[in-house]
User: What shape does this take?
Amino acid sequence: MNSSLTLSITTFLYGFSAFLYLIALVFKWRTPGVLATGFVFAGLIGNTAGIALRWAESYQMGIGHAPLSNLYESLVFFAWTIALLYLFIERRYGNRVIGAFTMPLAFLTMAYASLSPNISDRIQPLLPALKSNWLIAHVITCFIGYAAFAIAFGLSIMYLIRHREPGRNGSVLGRFPEPRVIDDLTHRMIMFGFLFLSVGIITGAVWANSAWGRYWGWDPKETWSLITWFIYATLLHAKMMRGWHGRRIAYLSLIGFAAVLFTYFGVNLLPGLHSYGAMGQ
Amino acid sequence: MDNKEIPGDSPHPNGLWSFFASVKLSVVLLLTLAATSVIGTLIPQNETPENYRRAFGEFYYRLFETLDIFDMYHSWWFQLLLLLLTVNIIVCSLDRLAATWKIVFAKQPRFNLNRFRSDKHKISREVPQAPEELRPVIEDLLAKKFTYRRTAETAEGFVFFAEKWRWTRLGVYVVHASVIILLIGGLLGSIFGFEGYVNIPEGEMTNTVNLRNSGKTIQLGFDIRCENFNVSFYPSGMPKEYRSRLSIIENGATVLQKDILVNHPLRFKGINIFQSSYGQLPAEISMTAAPEEITLSFTSKETGMVYNKTVRSGERIVIPEDLGEFVINDFQKTYDFRGRALGPTLIGTLVQKNGATVEVLLPFKFPGFDRMGAIIDPQRDDAVLISIDDVSSLPDQQAKRFYTGLQVTKDPGVWVVYTGFVLMIIGCVIAFFMSHQRLCVEVVRRGRQCLVTVSGSANKNKLGMHRKVETIADHLLGTAGEPLAAPVPTGQNIKKEDQ
Ligand code: HEM
Assistant: This one.
């Protein structure tokens, strides 16, 4: 059993769970939902094992390092965090509808990581600039933040679907949590994400300062993470203004997540030099 | 977040003050900052005018130039936005701080009994004990869960108040202060700091660096000498480590010596020296002859064992583990490897176990070269890798003269910024996850029994507080106690959601 295989299986398990959550939602069946939870569990175990194996394999190759050093590894960790946070929410809120909106994200992340031709899943040795504990802290915290924002994104879509109709008992919408509860949970996820994004930006700045002697250089990746941070800060404050509940907050959360995605994937398309962990030589 | 507490009940009716105290302004400013920041990521910053002219044409070049788009994060208008945000945060915080301060530092916390009584989520039950019996039980429980407690006697029984984490109301002020501190730190750095670079050949020293932005030169007040520079590679050819041994020389005496690596800079008198790049000197003094003897290391791929052997030119040696035989048979001052100059190189022949002979290159500058070669050469069975063991012990140091590229910076604001970082994290944790929680338990005599009502309030996370009230009620009254009065509709609702 190696990490590659384990992680491929994980992709399928997340895929099944997402599919079953959707089936359970649309056909109002219970069993697929319960099964889906089982798949998330199994997927999470596989995901954890995959990360651990990859870590061990890097040591066997003599280039041991935490499996958080490139795009592939960070996506795997991202999926892991989404699944873990989701399970936690499912336990606490006892509602599987949320799974239909968040587990597809975990699945897509894993699928993208494994299938995209631009992403190499080879275990590579670390470039000198990447040998830093601050970098590890940076990747972990950023991705916990991104995962929380991903779940907030799923919740906001739920909110936008749900708030239109009163949600009669027995209808599909009636199975959604109440808008008030979705809104509250979204806000919690965003606070959680905002904290971790802040810590992520901070550890990134400390890393940059120890590697290049400057904590902030306005390079596109840094700038985009700051843009994301501004958007979510806006959201936190907008919530305090009259009339900024529910729907508008949900839209802001969608915009925020778009910024997250752009920070992560879009920046490489911009003119300029930054790629993941490029060394500023 | 308590939305009711927000709308501007400012004590200053002044128009300008309330303009700057408004959350609406901060929403506008934050969104504007987000939107304008995008520009600088779409248009590469600080390139040469010729590049911009070529990319945008004369008209747009002029337009963008006028708007400072090519260095927008330092432009007057971007800085103005930051300044407005700063004023906004300060005014807004001052505006609210007085009220918060009063709550947080009140000698005796105030409790509004009527507000608790009219709480929609209160839980009431009748229990078979007398109020006096209940008193110690309630007080014990509250003592476990709250830091401040007060008991008052009423005509028909008791009221117990308890609360904790009043100070957490200050959390948001810490966050806002941290933003200001960060901006101040950044300002300090840009006024009193510099960012420079310098290349120093091995064995040489300098006391000046060039500034990145202006191209000016500045004096450091001490000398930096590069004793030596080393780069090592992974088998795949990727760089593994850059290492410069630097000495700091003040008034002719070496006061500090340190190896710097990427991520491990040297700091001296507020000046930071970072490993940033390296290169080879163009006019290189080369090694003229092979050293008489040299220590080579032989690494067995299979067992991972490393054997060091001292070898003389022309002398045939047997590698342990039956890995073959090796002999050095040539030396070249510069070896041309597929168009790449390897510099002084020993050339040896490895006779493998299977009888095949392969040529092995041992360039002094790239001690790990054979690892790469092993991958390239299909003839090799790849069982043993050979490298020059310790390049630095070679007689002729000048053979591999590199220069090290150093980033030299000074930023007296960095500790201010780091303080801001720490405060921001602490402040966010407090603001997001802790709230000022108040609880009220009222016990009213009803003949031989009594009616107990639990209610609570918090300035944030109200759902969480309802849940807490429920647990406390369950704890106090036992789940067996008959629910009294109207069933608690909203409370149950929440329960259902939370199952
Ligand atoms: C980059 C700038 C800013 C950051 C990072 C920031 C951050 C925060 C955070 C994390 C909270 C807590 C939110 C919550 O509990 O949901 C908060 C609350 C608040 N912020 Fe800001 N803020 C910023 C700028 C401003 C500005 C310019 C104003 C000016 C009006 C402002 C006014 C407020 C107010 C009134 C609150 C609510 C305080 C309360 O709970 O009573 N913030 N801010």
Notes: Confidence is low (pLDDT under 50) at residues 272-281 of chain A. Residues A 191, 233, 236-237, 240; B 1, 5, 23, 26, 85, 88-89, 92, 172, 175-176, 179, 428, 431-432 surround protoporphyrin IX containing FE (CB under 6 Å).
